[in-house]
Amino acid sequence: MTNTAASVQGMDSRRLAAIDAFLKARYLDTGLLPNAQLLIAREGEIVHFSHQGAAREGGGTVDQRSLFRIASMTKPITSIAFMMLVEEGKVAVDTPVHHILPEFRGLGVYNGGGGGVPFVTRPTSEPMRMLDLLRHTAGLTYGFQNRSNVDAAYRESKMENWHGNLDLDGFVAALGKLPLEFSPGEGWNYSVATDVLGAVVERVSGQTLDAFFQTRIFAPLGMHDTFFAVPEDKIDRLTDCYTLVEGKGRVLYDRGEASAWSRRPKLLSGGGGLVSTALDYHRFCRMCEQGGTLDGVRIVGRKTLDLMTMNHLPGGKDLASLSRSLFSETQNAGTGFGLGFAVTQDVARTMIPGSQGEYYWGGMFSTAFFIDPVERLHMVFMTQLSPSGLYPIRRELKTMIYAALN
Length: 406
Known about the structure:
Layout: H1 3-8, H2 13-28, E1 35-42, E2 45-53, E3 68-69, H3 75-87, H4 97-100, E4 108-110, E5 121-123, H5 130-135, H6 149-157, H7 168-175, H8 193-205, H9 209-221, E6 241-245, E7 249-254, E8 275-276, H10 278-289, E9 293-294, E10 297-298, H11 302-308, H12 319-322, E11 335-337, E12 342-344, H13 347-350, E13 359-362, E14 368-372, E15 377-382, E16 385-386, H14 393-403
Parallel strand pairs: 6-16
Antiparallel strand pairs: 1-2, 1-15, 3-8, 4-5, 6-7, 9-10, 11-12, 12-13, 13-14, 14-15
Helix pairs in contact: 2-14, 3-8, 7-8
């Protein structure tokens, strides 16, 4: 983008350029990341869009057409989809989950057992509500957390395998046979809750999740490069994906030209299944930033977005006081959680520049976004390395982006 665009929107183009130099020296030249794509927009206008590093091993540089696995950046999209159905009066934020998913009726809280011994449960003190799915207070977990007998049961069942034996209905049925880690509302644990929310969207709308996304969100917003399965004519644009293995360093996890993301998954993951581009996700961010509308198309109402980006954690607490998770896409102090997004409550406690009410999330392959409604500023960052949180890159990017504001 031009220096003029940045200066018109109140940003220092030299400081923005310094972010690229920092990324190259710290992460690309050292081999810590395979590539880095950074999009920054203010007042809806892109003021900085840079591309560095190879899209594929031995290939050309990533560019604006490059496709990235956005993992948990799928979650805000699924949450928006659910709130669209709320606006239609088909479901509510406080609807008990078992009213839509009867497989969850009678779910109990872990009270012993596991490891080959039958589970013992106790009743929940409150029913699980849609609110709990949206804010990750449902008592569900992820198998990869490796912290309890419950997530061990998730791993044993392989229920989270997108190309396994279960579709969303089967996934919900399998979850309904396992105990919760805690009674809904009593803690925060990063979990498969948004995948369950995807099943709710299917049941309430009568459409498969991919069809709902395509017809109700992606096509109206012009997000033509966002999908669960990359079409054959676009697979050449899908980047290679890497993971960090102890003792081996960065190793190839999923090759772009022969990717698992080229096939429609049996389990449509509203929690982490999408592939997208920085420009497509920029359009999603602009829609959110503009109160639910973009280019004359309304996805959700302005007050719905306001509700989604408030802190909904019980008692107004932050994640530092409520989280039971060993893994999250966010720093915990000063951070609340809304209906699908982390929300900055107390900027001082985060110890990173920002604004109260800023909302954001990231994905396991180290992608990230944030939207600052005060500064009318948003960022989309793309790369492909798991697990996320290996490096303080999100904190560094935020700090340098805010330092570029005039």
